[in-house]
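cron nightly-structures :: item 1 of 1
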Amino acid sequence: MTAWAGAWGAGMYRGAVSAPIVVMPTGFSALDQCLEGGGWPAGMLTELRVRPVGIGEMRLLLPVLAALSREGRLIWVAPPYGPYAPALAAHDIVLDHLVVVRPRTHKEALWVVSQGLLSPAVGAVVSWFTDIREQEFRALQRHAAQGGRWSFCFLPRDLAPKPSRLRLILEPAPEGVRITLARKAGRPVAPLVVAL
C-alpha cells in the first residue's frame, strides 16, 4: 500500500492552486471511490461517528494501520476495548509499534493526541472521545495539519457536530458497516455498505 498525492478538485475548478493532499487507500475500493483523492487523507483529522461501539469499525482502519505500522508508531488513545494482539498480528499490524495510552483525564487525552500528531516518529493516531469541545477539536485539526499525520477520531454518533472536513457516520448493516459520508464541501455521497 503506498501513499498517493492528489489535489482537491474544487480548488482547481475555481482556478485556485490548492495544496496537494497525501492519501493512502483504505483497502475497500467502494470507500476509496467516495473519498477525495481515493483514500484516507494525511494531515487531516478524520472523524468517525459510531453507534453502537463495537460494530466492526476498527476493521475499516486495519489496512491503513498495517501499512503505517511499518513506517512508524501507532498511538491509540483511550480505546474502549483492549487491543487483541493475535487479531492485529493477523492483519499485519507491527505490534512492537503499537502504543496504547489510557489517559486519566480528558486534558491528558488531548495532550497525548496532540503530541502524537506532531511527532515525526508516529505514523497514525487513533483516538476515542466521549465528548470534545469545538475549540479542542479545532486544535487537534491544526496539529494534524501541522504534523501531516494520519489521524482518526472516534466520537459518539449523537454528539453535537464538529467542524470536520471529513466525517464518516458508521452504523451496523447485515453485510457489514453502513457508511454515510459528510464532507465540508463537495457533492453529497449516498450511503454505502462495506462488507467486513
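cron nightly-structures :: done
The first strand starts at residue 4 and ends at 6.
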